[in-house]
Amino acid sequence: MLKIAVLVSGGGTNLQAIIDSIEGGKLDNVRIVKVISNKEGAYALERAAKHGIEGICISPKSFGERADYFKALSEELKNSGTELIVLAGFLVVLSSDFVREWRGRIINIHPSLIPSFCGDGYYGLRVHEKALERGVKVTGATVHFVDEGTDTGPIILQKAVNVEDGDTPEILQKRVMEQAEWIILPRAIRMIADGSIKTS
Ligand code: GRF
Q1: Residue range 133-147: average pLDDT?
Q2: pLDDT at 200
Q3: Phi first, then psi: what are they for 93, rounded to 5°?
Q4: 3-state DSSP call for residue 9?
Q5: Nearest to 53 by CA among 24, 84, 80, 91
Q6: Mind listing the domains of the chain with CATH numbers?
Q7: Going along the chain, which residue ranges are E strands?
Q8: Whether the CB of 88 sits within 6 Å of ligand 1
Q9: Ligand 1 within 6 A of 169 CB?
Q10: Best mutation site among 9, 20, 92, 109 for ligand 1, i.e. most ligand atoms within 8 A of its Cβ?
Q11: pLDDT tens string 12-21
């Protein structure tokens, strides 16, 4: 049984996709031991509560030093027996020390086909705004291991999504979530749980 913690900051639709996959029997060897938000009141915490999953907020604002925040976060994860950290709409940039401590056991979902539209400042709706500005005909989502860079770790899965005429950033974001993110994130977790990809 792979014990995962899901780190969130907002709506939690990717968390919901994981929960639905577990409850639907597609991820029967995975258990969410903790949902941790950096934002009080994130709707993702309500999604966790609705499914009997412990959700807590650990806010960087409660700590004088950034290092103390990451120490507390890591302690919480270790105490809950976390084996894989899943960043699902998590907007805090991880410290190098934290990444080193958990190297190979952190994955992230990014709403574009890396290496396009990624890196510093590329998150949420802005990714889709830039894709539309550039005029790409195909975009998508990527699941990758997290290293010390931003969206630079080894790619695990990608899924392409067509850009349609008249797309707004909101419409494109929704299509990328529905047709890519919510499919490849649970799939990547299953591959790690099955041992078909090594946490590297
Ligand atoms: C999504 O676009 C996801 O790709 C990005 O954060 C956004 C919000 O995700 N990482 P969620 O609805 O909170 O899962």
Answers
A1: 98
A2: 54
A3: -80, 120
A4: coil
A5: 80
A6: 2-194 (3.40.50.170)
A7: 2-8, 30-37, 55-57, 84-87, 106-110, 138-145, 155-162
A8: yes
A9: no
A10: 109
A11: 999 999 999 9
Residue 128 falls in the annotated catalytic set: no
Which residue of the set 51, 110, 128, 144 is catalytic?
Answer: 110
- Cβ(111) to ligand 1 under 6 A? yes
6: its two tokens: 């899901």
d(CA 15, ligand 1 centre) in Å = 9
Amino acid at 5: A
pLDDT (0 to 100) of residue 112: 98
CA distances from 179 to 9, 129, 163, 165, 187 (A): 21, 18, 12, 17, 13
Contact predicate 129/171, CB 8 Å:
no
pTM for this one?
Answer: 0.97
CA of residue 30 to ligand 1 center, whole Å: 21
